[in-house]
Structure formats: structure tokens, C-alpha cells
User: Fold these one by one.
Assistant:
Number 1:
Amino acid sequence: MRTFIVLCLAFIAVPLAAATTHVNAKIAFDSNRDGNDEIYVMNADGTGQTRLTNNAASDVGPAWSPDGTKIAFNRGFDIFVMNADGSSQIRLTSSAAMNIAPAWSPDGTKIAFHSSRDGNFEIYVMNADGSNPTRLTSNAAGDFAPAWSPDGQRIVFRSNRDGNNEIYVMAKDGTGQTRVTVNPADDQEPKFSGDGTKIIFTRALPTRQINVINIDGTNTVQLTSAGNNFFPTLSPDGKEDRVRQRPRRQSRDLQHELRRQFRSPADEQFHRR
Ligand SMILES: [Ca+2]
Ligand SMILES: [Ca+2]
Ligand SMILES: [Ca+2]
């Protein structure tokens, strides 16, 4: 469980930090400490740990809204949103398929995610109230893990449409889908740099290392070389890489499949070694 908490902390690092200018700094995470996966918040120093959800389903993957007033999360395979105090929990998706990995647009009006509702995984965007879900990709391969550019005009994601996981960018309306990486290695976890000119991602070499690349695909630079490194995100000023190392997974739990959706099957195989 601790493994996934670390993952979640890394996952929310940017919006969490961005929220600090608006509200008191909080850390959101999920934990099974009370019997099944629930969303919790705590102060940055670990005090005030408070459970926000109380539901038999698995609640995981909290994502702060940019202004820090709301938290999007997965309950089972649907995306929900709630106020930062846990009140007003609202279901945003209601398809029989998986709806995973909510990512807030910088202005807080949209949420991108990936879903299998149309037969294979595609990137979608919906209004923050769940209305008007719109498919942005249409490809027989898997399209996963959307993240917004700082100006909200573009979305970066990963896809295996060209035979292995590569990083792609597109306009927020899905047009102009462009491949950024061209490498037989497994490329994942893309995020825009603070100025929007670069993409930070991880590449399995086979150990997973953090790389940065220009959005036009030029000038790949490997930033790490030791261990395995996951979920790089930039601090709000765009100057500091936050690199977190995730310990080897010790056990698989009931919601393994849900969690797996935040990563690729190939990556899971990698972690099971
Ligand atoms: Ca729960
Ligand atoms: Ca697809
Ligand atoms: Ca690749």
C-alpha cells in the first residue's frame, strides 16, 4: 500500500503545490488502513490525517483541482469529484468501461482521462462537472495518461499505436496528434515542463530513467541513471524536477487492475521482476 501512496503523492505533486497559494498546503493520498482503499488528506507535516471517503468501493488516485478546492479521484472504474473536505461526492463518469486517471486543465474547467468505453483505451476530456465527454483519440491501440500543457492548449499522452509506448502531443481538441519520442524503449508518464517547451517522461532502458525532450522530438536528455525512477513532475515555478523513487512492489491487492491502469502492462511486468 505504501507503494501506491508514494505513487499518488508524486502524481499530485504539481497541483498540490500549485494549490498552496490558495489554501493551506495539504497532501492527498489513498490508503487501505481502514479496510479498503479510501482517499485521505493530511497537512504537509503529516498532522491532521483525515479520511474523506467512506465507501466499500476502492477510492484511489486523488488529483487536486488547480485552485485546491476540489479533488478528483477514481472510485472503482469511475471518476468522481468531491470538495476538498470530502463533501459533495459526485460521480462524473457512468460508463460500464474503465474511466481512469483524471487530469485537471490548468483553468480547472476540464478533466482529461483515459477510458475503454469505445472498445479500447482512448483519451477523453469532459467538463469538470462531467458534462460533454468528448473523445480526443481514435486509434485501435491504447492511449493513456493525459497531462495538460501549462497554457491549457495541448495535451501530452502515451500511446502504443506505433508498436511500443511512445509520447505524443495533441491540441486540446484532439487535432494535430504528433509523435514526440521515437525509441523502441517503453516511454511513459509524460508531463509538460513549466514553460511548455519540453516534455519530461520516463523510459525503461531497461531500468526506468527520467528523460526530458523538446516537444518537437529533438534533444532527448537522460536526467537520471540509478535505480528506477517514476512519475516526474515539475514544481510550479518549472525550475525544479521532483524525482521520486518508488520501492519495489511487495504485494498485489484487490484493486490491482485499477492501479495497473495508471501504468502499462509492460511496465507492470517490469515491476514484477
Ligand atoms: Ca473505499
Ligand atoms: Ca485507442
Ligand atoms: Ca518508445
Number 2:
Amino acid sequence: MSSSYDLLIIAGDLFNDNSPSQETVDYVKYHLENLAIPVVILPGNHDCYDSQSVYRRYSFPQNIKIIQERKSYLPFPDLDLTVAGSPILSPHDNQPLIRGLSRPTNTRWYIIVAHGSLQIPGRFESHARAIGLEEITSSNADYIALGDWHNFADYSQGSVRAFYSGAPEPTSLTQEGAGKVASITLSDQGVEVESLPIGTISTRSISLNISGSSARQIITRIRQEASPNLILKVTLNGMKRLGEPIDLEMDTDLSSYFYYLQIKDDSVTALDNISATDYPETHVIGQYIRLLQGKIVSAKSDDERKIAEQAMQLGVLLLQGKEVLK
Ligand SMILES: [Mn+2]
């Protein structure tokens, strides 16, 4: 892939913190060096350029340029291109990221790299490292490579193209737009931006109605979704079987079938000892209990009795306003 590209820009948070293992740093160095093209790294808030920065403690290969000072301009004469940006210098650094940069006159292409959150009135406000939309509009850049948010997103303003490439892999369920890089083509036709999927991990949410199911059946059902590259969220609803607590921990390695498994239990526990005397006959719920009790007593088989018992449980829970039939 790298053979068809001239430059790689990493818009911050390449490392999750400033103390990655030697192994991780070696892995990153090896692969970036192997690209054999210039790589610009902007320190983000997770890997900020403070005194303990990973970028100070390790030396990086020649082709990697780390932005170390505010308002840096890195010229690439062969490409007739300049990359400008300000690194994050401490975890609470709140200095402007785009404002104050100006287009150099001696370059054809002008790219800004910035690591922060856009300020969009009514949607995202008063966030640290905020970037106003008007800063994009007035930047005079050909392209702004944004980092910090994990989903691929287009925030172009006016004639300035500005994108979050997003994270190369999702790290949580809310990151369905992650797993991409932004591929930029600069030509006489202008600036073309494409999202290229490179991620291997996907996210999915499912909900299971567990009414009448045993823990074993629920585990079997969840295991049908098994994939080592899947972030799965399972919401359980319905009614837990009487006298059978659902213990999904009985399968201790259920989560090992997934990249990440999250189970949210919204189910309702069956009622113990529903007694007609607790509910007056004049109330709908009292009428219902008496009707179902009659059916339980007169059931002609075990199956028929079980169905009537479950109907009584579900009906009472529903009449109490519980959501058991989602
Ligand atoms: Mn960040």
C-alpha cells in the first residue's frame, strides 16, 4: 500500500500513553521505517510531548518526523508541500491548535495536522483542546488532518477539506465508524479524500429475550455470535425463569470467544409467590391472578400448567409496568 503514497500523517495518540512497552515501540518503529516514506507524527493528548514523552525517551528512524514545537512547519520540497501543526505539550495543554498558523508562500500544498475536538454549538461544546469550525474555514489550508475522535468524519468547511481519519480499529461499541484511514490525493483537480477500510474488528449489538430460557441456552445463543474480531454487546430482556438464577459466569470463558463482550442484563426476575390476597378483586391485576390461578389448578397436563404459570408471571409483571416482552 505504501508504494503508492508519498507521505503518512499520524494526527496524534499513536500511543495510548507515554509508557508503552519497548516491544510496542519497536513494533511501531519497525513498521513505520519499512514504509520508506516520510511519516509525520503529531503528539496527541495520550502521547503528549512532555518531559516523559515516548518521543523523547526513544529515538525514531530517520523517515519519522515528530512535531515537537508549537506552530511547526515541516517542508517537503520534493512534494512541494508543507505540513504545519502544534503538538500537545502536556495532558492539560489547551493552546490553540489551528489558530495562529498561516499558509507559507513558498509551497504549493499546505496541510495542517491538529489533535482536538471540534466545537459545534448544540452538539459538542466546551471541550478541552477545542477547535472552532471557523478556525477550519479561515485556515487557508488545502487539507486538515484531524485526530482525537475515533470515527471517520468529514468536517470540511468552505474550501478547506478537513477530516478525522478515525482510529484504525474500534475500541468500543460506539465506534462503528472506526477502522479506516483517510487517503488524500492532491492534484490539479483539487483535493480528493477517500476513506479506506483497514480495520479487522467490527462492532455489533443484539438483544435477547430470555423468557423461558435456561442459563445454558442463553450461553449457547451468545456463543453462536462468536468471533475473535467482534466487539459484541448483548442486552438481555424478558423474564428470568422461576427459581433459576441466570449465571452466565458458569461459562467462564464466554468472553474469550470475542474481541470484547459486554452483557447488559435488563431482564426481570420472576415473582415469587404471587398471592391473590395481595391484589383486590376489583383491580385488573387481581382479576388476572384469579383467572390464571383457576387455569393452573385445572390444567390437564404438566405442560399446560407450566404455560399457565408463565402466563401469570408475565401478565403480572406487564400489569405492573415492567418491560418483559421487548
Ligand atoms: Mn486524543
